[in-house]
Amino acid sequence: MDSGSGIVFDFFAVEYELSLIRLDNISFGYPNCGQVLKGLDFVVEKGDRIALTGGNGAGKTTLFHIILGLLTPQSGRVLLFGKECREEEDFKEPRKKIGLLFQDPDDQLFSPSVIEDVSFGPLNLGMSREDALAVSRKWLDRLGIAHLEKRVPYELSGGEKKLVALASILAMEPRVLLLDEPMAGLESQAIKRFLSTVEKGDFDAVVIITHMPQMLGSLVNKKLRLEEGKLKEVLSPTDEPLC
Amino acid sequence: MTCERMAKGESLLHLADPRVKIIAALVLSLELVFLECLLALIIALLCAILMLLITDIDKRLLAKRLAIVNVFLVFLWLVIPISTPGDSIFRWGPLNITDRGVFLCTLITVKCNAIVMFNIALLSTSSIFSLAHALDHLKVPPVLVQLFFFSWRYLHVLEEEYARIKRAALLRGFQPGSNLLTYKTYANILGTLFVRSYDRGQRVYWAMVCRGFNGTFWLLSHFELKPRDFFLILWTLVLASSLIFLQWSMNCH
Amino acid sequence: MHISEGILSVPVLTAGALVTVTGLAIGIKRVKPADIPKVALLTAAFFVASLIHVPIGPSNAHLVLNGLLGVLLGWAAFPAIFIGLLLQAVLFQFGGLTTLGVNTANIAIPGIFFGLLARRFMSLDRPVFSAVLAGIAGGLSILGSGLLVAMSLGLSGDSFSLVSKIIFTAHVPIAVIEALVTGFIIRFLMKVKPEIIGLTFESRQPLARHMTAVTTLLFALVLVLLPTRASCHRVNVFAWFDGDKVTGTAYFSSGRPAVASKLLVRNLETGKEFELTTGSKGEFSFVPEGPGKYEIELYAGEGHKATTAVLVKPSTEGTGALDKKKPLFAASADPPLSHQDVAQGGPSNDTGAVQCKDIGKVVDRILAKRLEPIKAELQRLAMAQNRVTVKDVVAGLGYIVGIMGIWAYISSRKGG
Ligand SMILES: Nc1ncnc2c1ncn2[C@@H]1O[C@H](COP(=O)(O)OP(=O)(O)O)[C@@H](O)[C@H]1O
Ligand SMILES: [Mg+2]
């Protein structure tokens, strides 16, 4: 930081304040797999509704995992809510405010019953048993899957699992949502309910990885495409790939 | 496909508290190991059959499972009668079947089947999740319970994954046989399975961390002893003590 | 691979359970909370692998992959195998609760031993060498398990000796397949995901400590198994000749008399056999048909067998049959006696002096009477010696290891 000029300092501070998520010059590669992200910059600000596209294996999922500190980039900085995060410890607080929906709902659902799975997050946030159950039931209801409450998660259909996983994220009432292919495998009725839930929910920002940005319609106000390890803004519909 | 095919049901034993069932299964199987009185063992076997009848598990499935258990016993029946010293009851060439050998085999067969039947009636009628939950209440180290629980949770996912990988191999002309290529292909299939399992294990942990996991597994439901559980406890105690009494009074060792 | 319920003897089951509790305690301590899902997923993957039938010749076999488990998971293989077997018991009714301990120990100990040993020398720079090494470890792990399974059976009773030999032999072809599959899997993993082999479940300890721990465990298993079998299954027979009849006792090494047990007496000179039954204190006696060496075989319960030999010397007491053969036997040298013969009757006397015969007879009688308590004392001493041996002391140590294991297991509950 340039400490010589107070004005510059303030200017940057304001900008950081605005960015909920900010990645600077991130490079990342898996061992013996080549570079996946090459000097990537990414900013999520309040009010953003971003659709993130990219080919298979472009590194979209990897990007989400870097944002939450699950993977450590080889170079670059991660700033969440204006604070730089380096260590595991730094990510603990932001993770409570950023809800990440995993691509495979099986990764997320491990409890013996749906209601236990959904209330796992709220209980970890320190809620009482009753409050946790109440908030879990509320979200199950909003997603139209209240009837699944007593079921065993791994016996559900793929679409049902997705909705339960989403409910388990929403029950923590995060400010920012990162959704990794939330609509894959959902039937159109479920997609509608999912979209309206996200729309009505009062989130600061939402980033959705999807192969079908058209389906999001008016929900998104920004489209980004991950290509060759970098993010590019998609300005016209012709830039969109056919998926 | 592995699944808890015997765990579904509404019988008295299905509904009983899994904690009680685990303890009862332990008590009865440990006791049977010590019993050496054939009469007592036969009575235990009859009681085990009675308990199986109560569970109302599909008879054909039961027969199949018991048949598998008895394969090893058949092997023992082929070997032990001729390799045990004792009085000959039948001689054919160099083969000498002895009374002690036959007696020992009978004893083992009755004992093994009785223990297995108690286990089916008491353990296989519980879902693995409820058993894990019960083990937690029975003060088994949490790490062990969690490993048990997670392994079961992801067993089906991995089985499906294995089936997919194998199907892909079969579609590309893989024909299992007794040759190096077969073993190598199986190794690659399993290697892929291990890599995916490892990655998934990592992601499962990440998903938990993202939901604020800090080492605590929460239990929402708790067990409650019902009258039927006290009935099961009573039945176990009466059965166990009468078997001991029988062995003692028959004075056989 | 694993042994069904109701077959093994109580000491073998106990020993197995104690060793497994110790192994679990060590294994659990090494699994950090962050590793739980990974270890669990690999456990599930191994469970899936164990359901696969791999063809061998005209038949097929289940994979066990305990050597690979040892390479990948190290000590965490103990809980992994335990859980795999527990799942099998509940889902398929293979094995059960009482054999869980022995079966886990039999599979896990060789796997961890050879797995850790192989991993010590594996490196990414030499993938082929490492794969071969792991393959050898995989094969040896199966052979080791086969040996332990055979031992568990063999030590459960003499009747199982043939069964255990057959079972061990059956492990040999499986070991070859396992070696191949393990080697190929390691080669695959080294290419695709080497970090899976360098799993960080192990706190990087010097090899020596790992090995000492595994070896200690192995020894505890063996040492506990050996003498417990002896102390529970050995039966002793003890006999002497007191001038006109052979007297003896049969007893278990716990000191309990072998009541109403059958004895087979064989005259080694004539080959004649006859049967006897022991009394309520395990005692027996018979009048020998003539001098010579007699072999006494005792059968007490399933497969409990003991033998002893008694030398019947011609005496001067003058039962007709003995007198006739007297000169012949006086000339022959004493054949060596079996060690169990603590005392033998029939003092030697001068065969030539007829006038001394009466005196000799009286002396014999008196001596026999006088010596009775000493003989009894000697017998009790022999029994006491059989009861507590060095092996028993070692067994005691084995159990102490086991109890320490239980303690570690309980304390790991608090830690976990
Ligand atoms: N755990 C991993 N180990 C090694 N390579 C990985 C791993 N996860 C992903 N990759 C590789 O990284 C690249 C990006 O993966 P990912 O972020 O999942 O892509 P996307 O989500 O855009 O489809 C892919 O080429 C993939 O093969
Ligand atoms: Mg992805």
Explain how this protein is built.
Chain A has 9 helices and 10 strands. Chain A is α/β, with parallel strands linked by helices. In chain A, the strands form 2 sheets. A 6-stranded mixed beta sheet of chain A has the order 6-7-8-3-9-10, with helices on both faces. In chain A, strands 2-1-4-5 form a 4-stranded antiparallel beta sheet. In chain B, strands 1-2 form a two-stranded antiparallel sheet. In chain B, β1 and β2 form a beta hairpin. Chain B starts with 11 loop residues before the first helix and ends with a helix. Chain C has 2 domains: 229 residues, Arp2/3 complex 21 kDa subunit ARPC3; 146 residues, Immunoglobulins (Immunoglobulin-like, Sandwich), CATH 2.60.40.10. In chain C, 57% of the residues lie in helices and 13% in strands. Chain C starts with 9 loop residues before the first helix and ends with a helix. Chains in contact: A-B, B-C. At the B-C interface, α2, α4, α5, α7 and α8 of B face α1, α2, β1, α4 and α7 of C. Magnesium ion (MG) binds next to α2 of chain A.
